[in-house]
Amino acid sequence: MTDMKNISPDQEPIVELIDDTNEEMSLDDARRVKVLSPGMLVLKRFFRNRLAIVGMVILVFMFIFSFLGPIFSPYSQTQVFTKTGSMAKDYAGAIYNEELRYTVAEAENFSSAERAQFLFTLGQEEQTFAVGNQTFYYTAVGENAYRIMQLDPVAEELIGRVNPVGGATLPDGLVESYQSAKDAGSTSFEFEGEIYRITRKLKAQQISTEHNVAMATINTYDAYNQEDLDIVNSFEFVFASEQAIVEDEDEFTVNGQIFKVLEEEGRVTILDNSGEPFAEVSNIIVNPLDQSEFLSVEYKTAIREAVVNREDEIEFTHSDGETIEYNISRVNQNYYIKRETPTALINMYEFPSAVHPLGTDNLGRDYLSRLMYGARISLLIGVSAMVISGIIGIFLGVIAGYFGGRVDMFVSFLITTRLSMPVVLVALAVVALIGGSLNVIIWVLGLLIWDRFAVVMRSSTQQLRSIDYVNAAKAIGCSTTRILLTEVIPNILNSLIVVATLEIAHAILLEAALSFLGMGVQPPLPSWGLMISEGKEFMLFSPWIITIPGVVLSLLILSINLMGDGIRDITAPEGRS
Question: Is residue 202 part of a domain?
Fold first, then answer.
């Protein structure tokens, strides 16, 4: 028979039922102790709640999955996987040249200022221009091809008198040749095998010799062999070839070497003296995007023909025997040549396989590993925010319920004020101001969800403050702190545990919502809410990207709530009736 006098109001009376048909048990019988154990009764009551068992199993699995899984996983959360594929990459570019290209003679200089002045003079349809103390003269070799020379004054004519420049003596017969050219209206004359130019400088006529400075042409010259680049890009070669092309000559000579001109269907090919292709002349510029790569003239010629014929794609066989298909697209005046190039591609959104059981995400990372590390983040935020909010809520709720009066009114005002604030909007505003990080999210949530702790603790403390053992503690002179810590709080742990489980689930859901909106945990840290947000744009063709984190998040919340319900059932007074 149980002594009812020694039972506190919270304690469950233990009634022993003895079957008269069984043998009588002694007071120290181990079976009697086992039957009467309150802990065993609580444990049996918990295991009779099947949903609580399901929640506990899921929760244990989640902890093993998140904390032990990454230890055995061969992949990290940030490891990016690639695969070998092909991609159409820009390889070269082509454009119809409409700007003059300059080839400067050896040991000469033609600066940008001089080029600008030349273009201005060309537009004014004049033939001489001066930059500083230097005077230049140009002649048209052909259409869009100009020979630019520098004039070296030797004499000036002023008021009918020809005087040498710099005090030098003029050769005999030079003045007479000048007068003859002047009377004939010519701007130049030849004397002793040298060309002299007649130009006007202010009020004087100036007599000058000339020497080549540069060639300006819209044509581009490509050497068939890379070792011939210096010759092909020399002033002498460009000048001689431009003259031969304009004058329809079959050959020309440069430095004693004979070159032949071959024109076919608008193409101009320069052949060497053995008849082998030496250079190609065209007004279409073809250059590689990678300047370190040398494009063969055969390739450039094929591209030019495709551009002229407006072809979208061509196949070209390179010198190594490899045949590659090139795509040509036009944007404004530019032509972009692309080719399929083997490259390492990010293995994103791979379908689940043996290598990646849950596939990969948008950055080619193993989704199962991200899910494991994401569980750590969710559980860490949930538990940490619960601890912070629990400390605040328990302190405010217990002092409000115990002291009552103005303290209770003040705490009730704080609770009402907090309840009037939308958690998600306030959290969004705070994170937007100070930036999102793991610590910020934990503290923001912890400081925003303490109200449920405060309400439940206040109500439970109000019920306990008039209980006999609390009054007895007061009567024997125990301090308020000791009463609260040893008499009040231990007797409201059942309610505290239930609220704690609910707040963990609440914090995890809030973090997922913030991460989904882009204001929660920031990459590269994984978060289930962030994973759902990253996968929402691809849910139609990769549905597992958004389904998997959504399902595991729901299971985690469900397991925590089921555990809370099970704890409530075994600790609530109605559960003991």
Answer: yes
Sequential pLDDT tens for the chain (577 residues): 444 444 444 555 544 444 544 555 554 555 544 444 555 666 666 667 777 788 888 888 888 888 888 888 888 888 888 888 777 888 899 998 888 999 999 989 999 999 999 999 998 888 888 888 888 999 998 888 999 999 888 888 887 788 888 777 788 888 888 888 888 888 888 888 888 888 887 778 888 888 899 999 999 898 888 888 889 999 999 999 999 988 888 899 998 899 999 987 768 899 998 889 999 998 888 888 887 887 888 888 888 888 888 889 888 888 888 888 899 998 888 899 998 777 788 888 888 888 888 888 888 888 888 888 888 888 899 999 999 999 999 999 999 988 888 998 999 999 999 889 888 888 888 888 887 788 899 999 999 989 999 999 888 888 888 788 888 887 888 888 888 888 888 888 878 888 888 899 899 998 888 888 888 888 888 888 888 888 887 777 778 888 888 888 888 888 888 887 777 777 654 444 3
- If one counts the domains in the chain, the total is 2
Same domain, 228 and 372: no
Q: Is residue 410 part of a domain?
A: yes
**By residue range, what is the domain housing residue 535?**
49-63+368-576
Q: What is the 3-state secondary structure (H, E, C) of 262-331?
A: EEECCEEEEECCCCCEEEEEECEEEEECCCCCCCCHHHHHHHHHHHHCCCCEEEEECCCCCEEEEEEEEE
Domain stop point among 277, 302, 336: 277
Single pTM value for the model: 0.55
Long-range contacts of 490-493 (CB under 8 A, 24+ apart): 491/10, 491/464, 492/457, 492/460, 492/461, 492/464
